[in-house]
Structures are given as structure tokens and as C-alpha cells.
């Protein structure tokens, strides 16, 4: 089964635009779960422009499904994750002001750093995932550094999909085979949508998890959150 983890950062962005508590991030997360999401993902950034540290603490005891915290492992992020102990932490190489993640890790150049950080999370019993491109060497170094899983950065797939979906998915299928041969778990995310998700899944049915935010929350404006989540789940069958 491929799990759907809903990234709720956009809900926090909407709330923060007015400074109050509408929409309520915890309520939306719990509703996503009751509508069928298998997990909730948050990406707290240092400037707290969407998910705040307080949200992460508020969510932890209330969620019933898998909690995934993603972000750049700066000292305060590491501290937050070790305190909150989510089911999974996903390491992303983005700088503080970045609009969204736009690349996987260079796991070779950052090997020592990743190895040290992954050790901390592994010792705390938190499953680890490292955001990477489809390059074999990057996946191999993620494994050597101690990751339990990798998350494949799917923006290149999503961009190329409309022109030629076979060509778009091919490097991901190859990468997914490398991931499997190394005994790692496999996640994927970025720009996955109702248009491109099912084809990705059909080609890589051993995917453990997808994490989806932007397109899913945008679809919910038209379809409503419940139906949207059900439609994304249907793409994973
Ligand atoms: N995975 C990672 C590592 C991300 O940084 C993001 C965006 O926050 C996503 C998945 C979800 O991407 P999208 O919002 O395009 O679905």
C-alpha cells in the first residue's frame, strides 16, 4: 500500500495571512485523517512563515496517523524533531528563505553532515528519509549515511509529464529500482497532482509514501477536502 501524507503547510499560510486561527491547522489535519489521509506532513521553516513550532507541538499528541516533519536540519530543527519525536523526519536541503524545495541533497558532498544528523534521529528511534534526485550516486550515499528511506524529488517528473509521460517516469523507475536494491524505503513528493499521480504509482507500485501539498489543497478549493483526499487515494490503487 502506498500511503498518502497530506502536507498542510498551505493551510498554515492561509491562517497566517490574517493573523488569527482560521483555518485551524489542527482541525484541518484531523479532518484530513478522517477523510482518509494516511499521514500528515509539516515543513516548519526558520521564519515560521507557514507552519510554526507551536503547530508541531500541538499536532503531535492529537494525530492518529503518521506524522512526518520535513526540513533543513539546522540546530533548532533538530532540537524540535528530537523533542516531538514524529514517526518520520525528512531531511531537505533548502535554505531559510527559499519559496519551496527545489533540489535533492548532494549526499556525497554533505556525507559527514548527513551521517551525523541521521545518527541522532536514528538513535532516537525516528525513521529517517532524505530528499534526493534520481541520480544513483545520491541514493547510494544517502544509504551509506544511514537513511531508512529516500524521498525522490518529483518536480522533474511533473514538469515533463504533459509532453511525454513515459520519458518523464523512466528515470524514476530506474531510481526506484536502485532504492529497492539497497533495501531502502521509498517516498516521493513535489508537484504530484491528480493529473500525474496515478501514472507514477502504476510504474512504481512499491512506493511507500507520497507527500502532497500544493496541488491537493488547491484541488480542495473546487472539490472540497473530503472528495479531494478520496480522489488522491484512488490514484494510489
Ligand atoms: N516533499 C518535500 C520534501 C517538500 O519540500 C514538499 C513541499 O513542501 C513536498 C514534498 C510537497 O510538494 P507539493 O506541495 O508540491 O505537493
Automatic annotation (TrEMBL):
GO molecular function: pyridoxine 5'-phosphate synthase activity
Site positions for Transition state stabilizer: 151
Gene3D superfamilies in alphabetical order: Aldolase class I (3.20.20.70)
Associated pathway: Cofactor biosynthesis; pyridoxine 5'-phosphate biosynthesis; pyridoxine 5'-phosphate from D-erythrose 4-phosphate: step 5/5
Entry-linked InterPro entries: Aldolase_TIM (IPR013785), PyrdxlP_synth_PdxJ (IPR004569), Pyridoxine-5'_phos_synth (IPR036130)
Keywords from the named record: Cytoplasm, Pyridoxine biosynthesis, Transferase
Active-site residue list: 43, 70, 190
EC number: 2.6.99.2
Reaction catalyzed: 3-amino-2-oxopropyl phosphate + 1-deoxy-D-xylulose 5-phosphate = pyridoxine 5'-phosphate + phosphate + 2 H2O + H(+)
GO biological process: pyridoxine biosynthetic process
Binding-site positions, 1-deoxy-D-xylulose 5-phosphate: 45, 50, 100
GO cellular component: cytosol
Major localization class: cytoplasm
Cellular compartment(s): Cytoplasm
Pfam families the UniProt entry points to: PdxJ
Enzyme class: transferase
Alphabetized SUPFAM superfamilies for the sequence: Pyridoxine 5'-phosphate synthase
Function per UniProt: Catalyzes the complicated ring closure reaction between the two acyclic compounds 1-deoxy-D-xylulose-5-phosphate (DXP) and 3-amino-2-oxopropyl phosphate (1-amino-acetone-3-phosphate or AAP) to form pyridoxine 5'-phosphate (PNP) and inorganic phosphate.
HAMAP family from the UniProt entry: PdxJ
PANTHER family for this protein: PYRIDOXINE 5'-PHOSPHATE SYNTHASE (PTHR30456:SF0)
Record protein name field: Pyridoxine 5'-phosphate synthase
Natural source organism: Prevotella heparinolytica
Amino acid at each position: 500500500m502506498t500511503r498518502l501524507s497530506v502536507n498542510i503547510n498551505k493551510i498554515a499560510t492561509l491562517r497566517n495571512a490574517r493573523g488569527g486561527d482560521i483555518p485551524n491547522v489542527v482541525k484541518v489535519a484531523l479532518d484530513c485523517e478522517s477523510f482518509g489521509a494516511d499521514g500528515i506532513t509539516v515543513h516548519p521553516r526558520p521564519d515560521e512563515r507557514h507552519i510554526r513550532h507551536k503547530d508541531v507541538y500541538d499536532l503531535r499528541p492529537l494525530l492518529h496517523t503518521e506524522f512526518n516533519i520535513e526540513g533543513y536540519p539546522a540546530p533548532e530543527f533538530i532540537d524540535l524533531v528530537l523533542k516531538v519525536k514524529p514517526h518520520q523526519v525528512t531531511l531537505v536541503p533548502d535554505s531559510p528563505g527559499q519559496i519551496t524545495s527545489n533540489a535533492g541533497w548532494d549526499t556525497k558532498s554533505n556525507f559527514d553532515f548527513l551521517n551525523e544528523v541521521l545518527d541522532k534521529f536514528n538513535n532516537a528511534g525516528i525513521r529517517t528519509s532524505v530528499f534526493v534526485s534520481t541520480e544513483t550516486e545520491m541514493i547510494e550515499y544517502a544509504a551509506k549515511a544511514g537513511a531508512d528511506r529516500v524521498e525522490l524529488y518529483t518536480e522533474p517528473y511533473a514538469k515533463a509529464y504533459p509532453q511525454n509521460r513515459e520519458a518523464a517516469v523512466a528515470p524514476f523507475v530506474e531510481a526506484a529500482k536502485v532504492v529497492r536494491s539497497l533495501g531502502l524505503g521509498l517516498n516521493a513528493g513535489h508537484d504530484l497532482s491528480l493529473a500525474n499521480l496515478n501514472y507514477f504509482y502504476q510504474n512504481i507500485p512499491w512506493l511507500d509514501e507520497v507527500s502532497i501539498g500544493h496541488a491537493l489543497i488547491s484541488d480542495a478549493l473546487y472539490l472540497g477536502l473530503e472528495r479531494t483526499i478520496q480522489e488522491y487515494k484512488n490514484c494510489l490503487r
